[in-house]
UniProtKB/TrEMBL annotation:
<keyword id="KW-0479">Metal-binding</keyword>
<dbReference type="GO" id="GO:0046872">
    <property type="term" value="F:metal ion binding"/>
</dbReference>
<dbReference type="GO" id="GO:0000917">
    <property type="term" value="P:division septum assembly"/>
</dbReference>
<keyword id="KW-0460">Magnesium</keyword>
<dbReference type="GO" id="GO:0005829">
    <property type="term" value="C:cytosol"/>
</dbReference>
<dbReference type="InterPro" id="IPR006073">
    <property type="entry name" value="GTP-bd"/>
</dbReference>
<dbReference type="InterPro" id="IPR019987">
    <property type="entry name" value="GTP-bd_ribosome_bio_YsxC"/>
</dbReference>
<keyword id="KW-0132">Cell division</keyword>
<keyword id="KW-0717">Septation</keyword>
<dbReference type="InterPro" id="IPR027417">
    <property type="entry name" value="P-loop_NTPase"/>
</dbReference>
<feature type="domain" description="EngB-type G">
    <location>
        <begin position="21"/>
        <end position="205"/>
    </location>
</feature>
<keyword id="KW-0342">GTP-binding</keyword>
<protein>
    <recommendedName>
        <fullName>Probable GTP-binding protein EngB</fullName>
    </recommendedName>
</protein>
<dbReference type="Pfam" id="PF01926">
    <property type="entry name" value="MMR_HSR1"/>
</dbReference>
<keyword id="KW-0547">Nucleotide-binding</keyword>
<dbReference type="GO" id="GO:0005525">
    <property type="term" value="F:GTP binding"/>
</dbReference>
<comment type="similarity">
    <text>Belongs to the TRAFAC class TrmE-Era-EngA-EngB-Septin-like GTPase superfamily. EngB GTPase family.</text>
</comment>
Length: 205
């Protein structure tokens, strides 16, 4: 995570995906859960992924890679971070929301270089029906995923360990779920080092 990360491509539909190469780490979750903010916190670059108060900010699959690789076949970055549009309610025309939701689902199901999905859950709301739909899809496609609780600065500190164990209880029978839940606050920089470690392990195994 040392070098600066750069945005390389926004993907509006499956046919614009880059050729499969570097391992991909993707961030999924309901609109406004904090996916783009988490990527910025993770790489330590505030303005890298665009964030907004308005749900529906990210509308394409946005690819970020460490800078300094030529992109030639022999000089590819070891991994890419993929910011995704959210699912669920968004402030955008319904056709757009339907199209990007389909894109997210198709990508999650069918990308062989997708190494790990981080599924973000808002600490105040917990796992909702549409989150469960995504977890079902990932289990069925056997894509490894890990749950991240976001915005823990918005709940009382003593509630965090309880929320972690409740969430673990809910996912324990899920075959593709990584049996550890990360609690984060991008706002306060909480949990970023743990997440970096988890990603390092994911791409090296
Ligand atoms: P979409 O792209 O619309 O799906 O949203 P997103 O999941 O990428 O969320 P984004 O990162 O744009 O953040 C949504 C809002 O939540 C912004 O106003 C952020 O500032 C805020 N936010 C994100 N992370 C945190 C956090 O850890 N704590 C607090 N308090 N606010 C946060
Ligand atoms: Mg976003």
């Amino acid at each position: 995570f040392g070098r600066p990360w750069i945005f390389i491509r926004g993907v509006p539909s499956m046919k614009f995906l880059p050729p499969e190469g570097p391992l991909e780490i993707a961030f999924a979750g309901r609109s406004n859960v904090g996916k783009s903010s988490l990527i910025n916190g993770l790489v330590g670059q505030k303005g890298l992924a665009r964030t907004s108060n308005t749900p529906g900010r990210t509308q394409e699959l946005n690819y970020f890679v460490p800078d300094g690789f030529s992109g030639d076949p022999g000089d590819l970055p070891p991994m890419a971070l993929v910011d995704m549009p959210g699912y669920g309610y968004a402030q955008a025309p319904k056709e757009h929301v339907d199209a990007w939701t389909k894109l997210v689902f198709d990508y999650l199901r069918g990308r062989s270089t997708l190494k790990r999905v981080y599924v973000l859950i808002d600490s105040r709301h917990g796992i909702k029906k549409n989150d469960d739909d995504v977890l079902n899809l990932l289990d069925k496609a056997a894509v490894s995923y890990q749950i991240i609780l976001t915005k823990t600065d918005k709940i009382k500190e003593p509630a965090v360990p309880r929320l972690i164990s409740e969430t673990l209880e809910k996912i324990k029978k899920r075959p593709a779920a990584f049996p550890e839940v990360l609690a984060t606050s991008s706002e306060k920089g909480v949990g970023m080092e743990e997440l970096r470690d988890a990603i390092r392990v994911a791409i090296s195994t």
